[in-house]
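This part of the workshop introduces the protein records we will be handling. Getting from the letters to the tokens is the skill we practise here. The record below serves as our worked example for the rest of this section.

…
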Amino acid sequence: MLPSFPIPEEIQAKGILNDSDYLAFLVEKGAKGIYGDVLSDEVSDRLDFELSVINDSGYSRYFLIMQDIVNHARNELGAVVGPGRGSAAGSLVAYCLGITKIDPLKHDLLFERFMCPGRKAVPDIDVDFDDKGRQRVVEWLKEKYGKNNSAHIITFSKMLPERTFKEIAQLEKIPEGMTEKLYNAIPNEWRHLALKTAIQFSPDVPQQQKNLLYPITQRRDLCSHHLRPHYHRNQLSHSENDQTLPSFTQPAGAFGSCCLKNGENKNQS
């Protein structure tokens, strides 16, 4: 699903024609810039192991794209980029590519906390940018990969149980006093659950009140109240997002909460 990553023609002239070979080339170049032209067995063995896991898992292109984003943000866009955090700091490949600035060998960090053979989970490289720099990165991604191939991920905000209950009770024209009485019958320790579940398993709610509560909560509990772009997550795709993902376009100039209407909108900005 990731977009293709272009290999420069001068690199292709050296016989490097695919993602895994280009990744190995960049890693070796970066390693020699850090550790010198002659790499120790410790560095070489660690890099060989990490590259084999990355290539076998099919994530060579992911690392190529991530190093491109981080290095372009730092060197060309003037963004302030964090040194790396989380399990990705245990990757020597990420360190040699400039994605992280923490030497995992020096600090005895384990690559296996990030990736290991047979693990199905997608590797997650967290990158921190300053606010202004982050926006420049987002705009650059749109320019490089295409506006319709780069989009913010949407987050859905759920209505909290109490608000859900009271708003729906109002729509059902249940008297306010009865609404408070019904809601207060649900013990506090159950209210973090979906209301239907809380009511069903709450021993303190009499069956007669449960019969009143069920119609209110059965189909509307924890419904999405509004949606907004995730400020720190961006989706890149090999094709236009509206061809592969449920997508949404905000009104021009808007970047806050917004409403989704029956799936009518097919593009996401």
Observations:
- The chain has a mean pLDDT of 77.
- Residues 19-35 form the longest helix (17 residues).
- Residues 9-145 form one domain.
- The beta strands are 150-158, 224-236.
